[in-house]
Amino acid sequence: MSDVLLTGPTWYAANGTAQRGDVLLRQGVVASLGSVDAPKDVERLDADGLVLLPGFVDLHTHLREPGREDTETIASGSRAAAVGGYTAVLAMANTDPVTDTAEAAERVLDLGRAAGLVDVVPVGAVTKGLDGGELAELGLMHRSRAGVTVFSDDGRCVADGRVMRRALEYVRAFDGVVSQHSQDPELADASACCHEGELSGRLGLPGWPPVAEASIIARDAMLAEHTGSRVHVAHVSTAEGLDVVRWAKARGVRMTAEVTPHHLALGTELLTGYDPTFKVNPPLRPDEDRRALVDGLLEGTIDAVATDHAPHARHDKEHAFVDAAFGMLGLETAFSVVHDLLVADGRLGWADLSRVMSVNPARIAGLARHGREVAEGAPASLVLVDPTARVTVDRATSQSLSHNTPWHGHTLSGAVHTTILRGTVTARGGKPTAC
User: Fold this and answer.
1) DSSP code for 19
2) DSSP for 297-349?
3) How crowded is residue 186: how many other Cβ atoms within 10 Å of its Cβ?
4) Any idea what the Cα angle at residue 305 is, between residues 300 and 308, rounded to 5°?
5) 65 Cβ contact partners less than 8 Å away, ≥ 6 residues apart
6) pLDDT band for position 435 (50/70/90)?
7) 3-state DSSP call for residue 122?
8) What CA–CA distance (Å, rounded) separates 276 from 286?
């Protein structure tokens, strides 16, 4: 770990006040800000014109290891995350075998540490084998070296209310959180792949109605209120679901919610070409839902932007739409998508960007060493971004082992310049560095 001097960046206080000067990173923390008396042999990084933010934290990443190392590994996903400005990612439990034991969680933790580019935080399964029945080893996973605090059967809904209640009661003892994939299987089964409406009927695709999302969010809100526990809504996608989150928060329910960049920026009309790149779960929604999600993020009802990074091999995606795998890449493009959509036109300020991509995700996951305001004494897990850059996405240059990005060929404004994990540069100029 070497000392690093960032010369000339701009950073923002939580109230949005801009400051500019030099930033000295020493022994993994922000040592001084402003007019810095730096050692002569310090490594200097020219940050003039760049914006310095706390490193991004992703609440929702699929790294596929163990089980599908042909599509992603923890090492390759870590490279993608570092290039995308992330210093911590939460690795979902739907691997093979499932992360439903302390040993499995510790294995994910160790592989992340070996990669050394970002903090890989294991998410534990709520139920054994994601089968929705018997609870997994929640307490043992929490007490393990992995210290698991977030649990999710993502990819599947914890549909049984009794099981969800028991999980919430169990994690309350250590202030854990259950992240729910809100999809009532009786209203939208595993084949549902298009927003239910005129378009799904015209395309002949199985419909996914908004009530399938909203009804589970409402049930979980009531269970969280009853148990006093925390529940997190993964990838909220509909105006109806958002309304329930807003209602629950007004009641004082301990509920948080995330939205993906693709649900903010892409609409269901993209499905008309049957391109499986755009097949995600929950599905892309009409413009009225997309606009509602943007408003929900800007007003603070939605707490975080999370990627739902879901790599897939070509042989899993290149099928008829109904048979193709759900999901798309997100780690390397999330910042640029959000910047292009909301920051460039001034609707989302830099302090608010930090709130939804760094501060709130770290708080929800209980990551004390991440999501901290740029200040003296804070951990030096940071990202430098260039708001003037324009980047054309090329799937061939992706750090991921998979290439199922919806942004291929698109030019976006704003780019990640440098990522720093506890004082060590982990990515620069779109390439990961050795730690």
Assistant:
1) E
2) HHHTSS-EE---B----HHHHSS-GGGSPP-B--TTTHHHHHIIIIITTTSS-
3) 8
4) 145
5) 72, 73, 74, 77, 95, 108, 111
6) very low
7) strand
8) 17
Q: Counting beta carbons within 10 angstroms of the beta carbon of residue 293, is it exposed (0 to 12), middle (13 to 18) or buried (19 or more)?
A: buried
Q: What's the predicted TM-score (pTM) here? A: 0.97
Q: Which residues contact 137 (CB under 8 A, 6 or more apart)?
A: 100, 101, 102, 124
Distance CA 169, CA 345 (A): 43
Mean pLDDT for all residues in the chain: 96
Sheet holding 22-26, edge to edge: 29-34, 22-26, 4-7, 43-46
Residue 345 annotated in active site: no
**Residue carrying the six token digits 């709520």:** 126
First vs last C-alpha separation in the chain: 9
Instruction: Please give the single-letter amino acid code of residue 239.
Output: A
If pLDDT is split at 50, 70 and 90, which confidence band does 15 have?
confident
Q: Closest Cα partner for 260 from 408, 62, 99? A: 62
Judged on CB neighbours under 10 Å (0-12, 13-18, 19+), 252 is exposed
SS3 call for 220: helix
Contact 88, 118 (CB under 8 A): yes
Amino acid letter, residue 187 = L
Q: Tell me the per-residue pLDDT of 44-61, one tens digit each, with 9 for 90 and over.
A: 999 999 999 999 999 999
H/E segment holding residue 412 = strand 411-421
Rounded to whole angstroms, the Cα distance separating 277 from 176 reads 34
What is the pLDDT confidence band of residue 1, given thresholds at 50, 70 and 90?
A: low
Q: Find the helix packing angle between 239-250 and 210-227, rounded to 10°.
A: 20
pLDDT at 38: 80
Each residue's pLDDT tens digit, 282-293: 999 999 999 999
Burial class, 140, CB count within 10 angstroms (exposed 0-12 / middle 13-18 / buried 19+): middle
How long, in residues, is the chain? Answer: 435
Structural domains present in the chain: 4-51+378-394+410-432 (2.30.40.10), 55-365 (3.20.20.140)
User: Which secondary-structure segment (H or E) carries 179?
Assistant: strand 177-180
**Which among 22, 308, 316, 386 is annotated as catalytic?**
308
